[in-house]
Amino acid sequence: MTRDEPRTLLHIDWTRCDGRGLCTEILPELLTRDDWGFPLAPRHGSDVPVPDRLVDAAVEAVALCPRLALSLLQR
Amino acid sequence: MSVAEATEAAARVAAPTGTARLTSPGSPDLATHLATFGPLPVRAGPAVLLDELRASGLEGRGGAAFPAWRKLAALPARERARGRRAVIVGNAAEGEPQSFKDATLLRVAPHLVIDGLLTVAAAVDAHSVHLYAQSSVLESVSRALAERRDARSIQLREAADSFISGEASAVVSALAGRSPVPQDRTMRLTESGLGGRPTLLNNVETLAHIALISRFGAAWFRSIGTPSDPGTRLVTVGSDGKSSTVLEIAGGSRLGDVLRFAGIDPGSLSAVLVGGYHGAWLPASALEARLDRQDLAVFGAAPGAGILMGLDARHCPLTVAAAIATYLAGESAGRCGPCVNGLPAMAAVLGRLARGDQDPALAAEVRRLAGLVTGRGSCNHPDGTARFVLSTLTVFAEDVAAHQAGRCRKDHS
Ligand code: SF4
Ligand code: SF4
Fold it and tell me: In this predicted model, what pLDDT tens digit does every residue of B22-68 receive, in sequence order?
């Protein structure tokens, strides 16, 4: 791991996510929506690195996700 | 039999020579097993087993090809210290329709699998031991378990009948009495699996090799095969239109030889699918390649669970591939949005291409959808399906061009 790589990951539990996209509104810099509305982070899958300046917004997304599909992991 | 007698008896039985190792017993009963391989040697400590497995180079035979010793070593020592003893699972779910080597093994040599389970369980002082197998082999496994007193601890459970039933977290979910589908994971199963205990899954063929390595040693194991794929492996070999057979082959055998050995003329094929429906194609020109990681890597393939499916040169590869992609889309466990929506979309576009729709954007759209689903599921089903579909477009680029020009003359039935 290089020093610049974010240590916080936003984990998406696909078995819970319903794709209504609230998180993509809170984290527009990190997430877009795919063809069906599910959150999409270009070049990343289920664990999306969160830059420091977006950690607060990520915490908010975790708290507000209606399906409890989001969590933050530290690596 | 006393320990001394057993050790002596084991010493009297010679290690199998030749390629028939797992498949050498003439009959699945315990007496034949003991006469062929001798009794299980006195249990070695975990360190000895780990060293022997490391020296053997044995890799998992369930598809992921993780080194067997490293998997065992992944059970955290601190968990054991805290009294959370591990759960050991022998996995024979084998949901892949092109594969039945694990079922064959459990019919031919169930006692080797049982020996392997007991060896691993003893080495880690397991809390419980499970064997997860399809309904078709439950009877032969039950018969074998009933033949011996040391196997009473093994709990036999019927595996679900679906493509992804063998996925590790799906197995653990099923053993816990829940739905046999993959679970979202933020922790490794070796840290927290069945009942929150560290859980180790091994494919049953891997376990059978462990049973032989603990008898005859790492050097014997490596005396067949190539340095990058030592030992023997079970393969299921067939072609579209010809039913499959299970063979035990030397690791790193040439693909063409394996096909011929199975009664398939490599000259009749346009390609071979290696690794099953989550695998990749090797074109007919590449059948001199060895079935080992090194040679297959060029094509994005791996020996995996040893599945080879030849494609008859007269058949339209896109039609065959679209049918497989459609099947795989239907086997999505229906939980994760990108998989549930993306796989059918991808299969549908491939189907249009196969049926002769000349829209020039179709191939690129298949590629885009494959990229979109990759990495975005709770299990690797979307990734495996995307790999297969992308391999199809690459290896059969000429057929794609023929379809888009409306001049594919192959059999589309
Ligand atoms: S807010 Fe939650 S449920 Fe909604 S799209 Fe985002 S992760 Fe999915
Ligand atoms: S990725 Fe697909 S197959 Fe895997 S758990 Fe999710 S929906 Fe099921």
Answer: 999 999 999 999 999 999 887 767 888 999 999 999 999 998 778 88
Q: Is the CB of A33 under 6 A from ligand 1?
A: no
Show Cβ contacts of residue B234 under 8 Å, excluding neighbours closer than 6 positions.
B22, B23, B61, B101, B102, B104, B105, B205, B246, B247, B248, B306
Q: What is the DSSP string of B281-292?
A: EEEGGGTTSBSS
Question: Cβ(A30) to ligand 1 under 6 A?
Answer: no
CATH of the domain at A43: 3.30.70.20
pLDDT in tens, B271-308: 999 999 999 999 999 999 999 988 999 999 999 899 99
pLDDT band of B3, cuts 50, 70, 90: very low
Interface contact flag, B378 A14, Cβ < 8 Å? yes
Look at chain A and report how many structural domains it folds into.
Answer: 1
Give the model confidence (pLDDT) of B316-368 as tens digits. Answer: 999 999 999 999 999 988 899 999 999 999 999 999 999 999 999 999 999 99
Mark yes or no for CB contact A45/B184 under 8 Å: no
Domain membership flag for residue A1 = no
- A2 within some domain: no
Closest-CA distance of chain A to residue B226, Å: 34
Q: How many whole angstroms separate alpha carbon B137 and alpha carbon B87?
A: 22
Helical (H) or strand (E) element with B92: strand B87-92
Domains and CATH numbers, chain B: 3-222 (3.40.50.11540), 226-312 (3.10.20.600), 317-404 (1.20.1440.230)
Show the domain range for A42: 8-74
- A34: Cβ below 6 Å to ligand 1? no
Phi, psi of B268 (to 5 degrees): -90, 0
Q: Is ligand 2 within 6 A of the CB of residue B278?
A: no
Dist. CA A40–CA B16, nearest whole Å: 53
> Which residue of B338, B374, B375 is in closest CB contact with A38?
B338
User: What is the whole-number distance in angstroms between the Cα of residue B207 and the centre of ligand 1?
Assistant: 41
User: CB distance A38–B183 less than 8 Å?
Assistant: no
Hey, is A9 helix, strand or coil? Answer: strand
Contact at CB, A16 and B184, closer than 8 angstroms: yes
pTM reported for the whole predicted model: 0.93
The ipTM, to two decimals, is 0.94
How far is the centre of ligand 2, averaged over its atoms, from the C-alpha of B182 (Å)? Answer: 7
